[in-house]
Amino acid sequence: MTRSKFSELAEDPIRFLAYCSLRRALKAQPYTLSSPSDGPIIIVVPPGHQAHVYKSALHLLLKIEREEWGEQFGEIRLASPPKKKGSTDKQISVFDLKGLRVLIANRISEVPRDIRFVAQRTFHIEPPCARHINAARHLVGRLPIANEHAELLIGRPHNVIAAATFKKTVGGDEIAELSALDRAEVAGPCLFDLPGYDEVKPWVRGLYRDVEQWRRGNLSWKELSRGALLSGPPGTGKTLFASAFASSLGLRLIATTVGAWQSAGHLDDTLNAMRSSFQDANDGRGAVLFIDEFDSIGTRPTRPSSNHNDQYWQIVINEFLSLMNNLGDGVVVLGATNNPEWIDPAILRAGRIENHFSLHLPDTRTRAEIIRYHAGTKFSLESLVEIADELEGKSAAALEELVRDARKDARDEGCELEIRHLRARLPEKRYYSLEQQFRLGVHEAGHALVSLALGYASSATIEIKDSFDPNATSFRGGQTSYDLIENYLPTETALLDRIAVALAGMAAEAVVFGDRSLGSGGVIGSDIERATTLAKRIVATYGLGTTPAFLGTVEEVDDKPMPQPFEDELFEILRVQYARVLAMLTDERERVIGLARDAVTHHRVKIERDGNLDAA
In this structure, what are the phi and psi dihedrals at residue 484, rounded to the nearest 5 degrees? Predict the structure, then answer.
């Protein structure tokens, strides 16, 4: 090494470490750098290290003058140069190889496959060894680190090695502190301190243990479960979960949405925005990449298509899959959606987003726990259950807002928060008349009795409410839940039975009152919507209509009209099944009335297939 080169490296010990790693890798194969005409070489830097530092070190190693302008035509280039305002640098292409001797990448996936084909050789650079780290400390006037401690720094991210280089003394205590440097400092709550999320917490606990083993170097990252999908209606706390999840693992949270990627512009802009999110996470320090609106990423066409929109999503999803397949160590991907069925199955396969958790609005006890969490532990859980029972359908965010408003009321009175402040913030209730409650009971009794008669369920539980929140999105006064009889291979008859059960509530009202309410339809997820959707799938997807035919997948047929003969058959299925349950319930009219009365009296009844009734 010349005196001038040593002087340059002495001014920058981090570049010195990169220089040492490069020299160790390249000195055994000097012929590879002899001539650009032989083709470039590819250098992949260690995980968590900065490619631009290795680029600077290579200028010294190869005695190449730095190219401060027009670097896109330089002899040493980055596969993915940082985006700078006014810069002419761009992602490397096989059409831009003139004069290129060395291409530096953070990961081999950054290098297009055609360039990998052209390259002479690919070098995966090993991180600095203990001897190199102590040599860098010597450059800045520091005493060497004990070898057993220096060995623990090998393979750590660049920032950790830099901190160890400049620290005046590094012993066992300092090594322990350095081990926590790549643990994110987060201000939000830990997931394990939050109420709810019981269906997800066991997975998170297991992942936490694995991440700690990975941090200690005892477990390879590829052994970990690195992706999960959260699904559920709005208000179930998916965004809060992401923040608390990252906090629990000690990782940074990088939050984005598929909509933000799409809003970047045209296809190239969308792809670049997507790559940028993954690049932010793939810096070796560890991160939770939270992607909301996950269903908006679309699905690939099930068959070859010349449709421009289909081709667009084909490219987007293929790029997303490529990024998922090349995640760096320490990255966990968390998706969130209201519609998991809209997501391309290839994204959810093992090794990608392989875990799926359904979140639900909190039940009464969980609502009480959430209120207690925000209100303080001076209130017993039992004292809050009655309040929580009045807040059915409220999300965790709405419960937090209620407590916040109650605290303000207490401050305005100049006192501490009390139970009465929480009660005063309960939403206004409106009450169903006895006649309305009886109609709700008749409707749910129709569902329950038909489900048992047709073998759809082994038991059915009816719940009737006497009041409702007028500000809620729907006035759900009654519901029936089922203990379903498992059916892993539904037949045509079983599918028609499902339609019959869905239509039975409306039919029961017609039998008892001679008049039907609008409670069976009007919204997605209603009785009529479910019956109509299933009938459409029977004739257009499942091939179980009069003429066996396949018009498209479930996703393709749900939102588009069908040829008239298929539409006619759909309506005939609904007509026949409605007439069927109307006849069944006409024969059971007195039983419907009796079950409805019990439901109104007790608010909750469970009926078994053998006819036993349990009222609570």
Answer: -70, 145
> Which amino acid is residue 42, in one-letter code?
I
- Residues 379/372, Cβ–Cβ less than 8 Å: yes
Mind listing the pLDDT tens digit for each residue in 275-284? 888 888 887 6
- Does 499 score more than 90 pLDDT? yes
Helices 564-587, 589-602: inter-axial angle, 10-degree rounding? 80
Q: Pinpoint the alpha helices (H) of 258-326.
A: 258-262, 267-281, 308-325
pLDDT digits (tens, 9 = 90+) for 193-242: 899 899 899 999 999 999 888 877 788 888 888 889 999 888 788 888 99
Rounded-to-integer distance, Cα 300 and Cα 304, Å: 10
Q: 191-358, which class in CATH?
A: alpha beta
444: DSSP letter: H
For residues 510 and 439, give the distance between their C-alpha atoms in angstroms, rounded to a whole number. Answer: 10
What is the C-alpha separation between 331 and 278, in angstroms, rounded?
9
Inform me whether the pLDDT recorded for 70 exceeds 50.
no
Give CA–CA dist 522/525, Å, rounded.
9
Report the CATH fold assignment for 434-615: Methane Monooxygenase Hydroxylase; Chain G, domain 1 (1.20.58)
The CATH class that applies to domain 364-427 reads mainly alpha
Structure token pair of residue 195: 């109420």
Please list, in sequence order, all residues whose beta carbon lies within 8 angstroms of the beta carbon of residue 190, skipping any fewer than 6 positions away.
244, 247, 248
pLDDT for position 69? 45
Region of 414 (left: φ > 0; alpha: ψ -120 to 50; beta: rest) is left
Q: Based on the number of CB atoms within 10 Å of its own CB, is 119 exposed (0-12), middle (13-18) or buried (19 or more)?
A: buried
Cβ atoms of 39 and 118 within 8 Å: the answer is yes
Is the Cα torsion angle 241, 242, 243, 245 positive or negative in sign?
positive
Does the pLDDT value for residue 84 go beyond 50? yes
3-state secondary structure at position 108: helix
